[in-house]
Design brief:
This protein is 25% helix and 27% strand. Strands 6-7-8-3-9 form a 5-stranded parallel beta sheet, sandwiched between helices. A 4-stranded antiparallel beta sheet has the order 2-1-4-5, covered by helices on one side. It is of the alpha/beta class and 207 residues long. It has one domain: P-loop containing nucleotide triphosphate hydrolases (Rossmann fold, 3-Layer(aba) Sandwich), CATH 3.40.50.
Length: 207
């Protein structure tokens, strides 16, 4: 999927978060959205994913040269952010089964193999509210990476991860981010090492 932004702007009351952003995210490439905390990276990522509306401008989606209606992009996009909620009353196996009832799983994977990749086999039957913040972040990453979707949107993906978790994320990005459109909102170089291009939100804050 290719995602094109034409003069996209976002305003909260009288404050413009960013303005006049035109850019094309091409299918099969990896990008990083850069900027200081509070600069609007997460807002832009949610706008790109259709989870939030722009104040001005237009976003178009296309796959294999054909336009895709914005209301039909849900199945094509996977999203991970530190603030997203998990159903913490569920155990891990139950939660992943629930998640993959409305998202396609990558071919050749199973719930068991995904848990193995996360390194959480010993905690698979614990309720998620018992998990540490780092374990929860692994779950959030897994539900994005192991979906069979052409687009991955990752907001500060290494939040709460220890060194081993960061290594896991980097391996997943190399292996399961390949040939997908990946957009990473970050100010941590570990999270976007090797991306095709970077886009600084700061360039669209000079009004």
């Amino acid at each position: 999927m290719t995602i094109s932004l034409n003069q996209v702007s976002k305003r909260y009351q009288n404050h413009w978060v960013f303005k006049g952003l035109s850019y094309t995210f091409e299918a099969g490439r990896q990008y990083a959205l850069l900027g200081a905390n509070g600069s609007g990276k997460s807002t832009l990522l949610r706008i790109v994913g259709g989870m939030q509306h722009a104040s001005k401008g237009q976003i178009t989606y296309s796959a294999n040269g054909q336009a895709v209606a914005p209301e039909k992009i849900f199945s094509s996009i996977s999203y991970c952010a530190p603030g997203m909620d998990l159903v913490e009353e569920m155990v891990l196996t139950e939660f992943l089964r629930f998640h993959f009832t409305f998202k396609r799983m990558l071919p050749s994977f199973s719930i068991a193999s995904i848990i193995e990749h996360m390194g959480l086999k010993a905690a698979a039957h614990k309720q998620l509210h018992e998990y540490s913040s780092g374990m929860k972040q692994r779950v959030k990453l897994a539900q994005a990476f192991f979906c069979d979707s052409p687009v991955l949107l990752l907001d500060e993906p290494c939040s709460n991860l220890d060194g081993k978790g960061v290594e896991m994320y980097s391996q997943w990005l190399r292996t399961y981010g390949k040939d997908r459109l990946v957009i990473i909102a970050s100010n941590d170089e570990r999270e976007y090492e090797g991306v095709s291009a970077t886009l600084s939100i700061e360039d669209y804050k000079q009004f």
